[in-house]
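Researcher: Before we compare anything, I want clean individual predictions. No alignment, no superposition, just each chain on its own. First chain goes here; please echo the sequence and then give the C-alpha cells.
Model: Echoing the first chain and its structure:
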Amino acid sequence: TKGNNILRGKELNAKLKSLTEAGGDEDWNIYYVDPEGAKWCKSYPNSGYHGGGEPELRQVEKFPWDTNEIQ
C-alpha cells in the first residue's frame, strides 16, 4: 500500500533507475514518478545525522503541489 512501501540502500538505488524526477522542495525531498504513474518521494528522515543520514524512498498519494481541483 502507498506510504508503507519504504525502500532503503540497494533497493532504493535499484528503484531510482526506473524513476523520472518530478521536482523537489525546501526540505531536501525529491519527488519522482515511475513508469506506471505512481508517485514517490526520496527523503532524509534522519537529517540531523552527518551527511543527512540514509535516504528513504516511499510511495506517496500525491505531490505537495498537487491540488484536488479538476482542471
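Researcher: Okay. Second chain, same rules.
Model: Second chain and its structure:
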Amino acid sequence: ITLSLARLSEHQLAVSVASLGMVIAATTNSLAKAALATAIGGRPIALRVAIPLVASAAGGLATVVLWNTAA
C-alpha cells in the first residue's frame, strides 16, 4: 500500500491524501498486531504491546494532520 500510494502521489494523487492513506494502513496494521498479541498472550502481553503501538499510531496521525494543516 505504501509503495503504491507513493508512486501515485508523483502524478495522480495529492501528497496529503497519500500520506493519510499510509498512516491509515500503518495504524490498521499495528492495531491488528495488538489484537493478535492480546488474543494470544492475554492481558499482560496486551499492555506491553498495545501501549507502544497505539502511541505510535497516534503520533503518526498527529504528524500527518499537523503537516497537512501547515501546507
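Researcher: What stands out in the second chain?
Model: The mean pLDDT is 86. Additionally, The helical segments are 2-11, 15-70.
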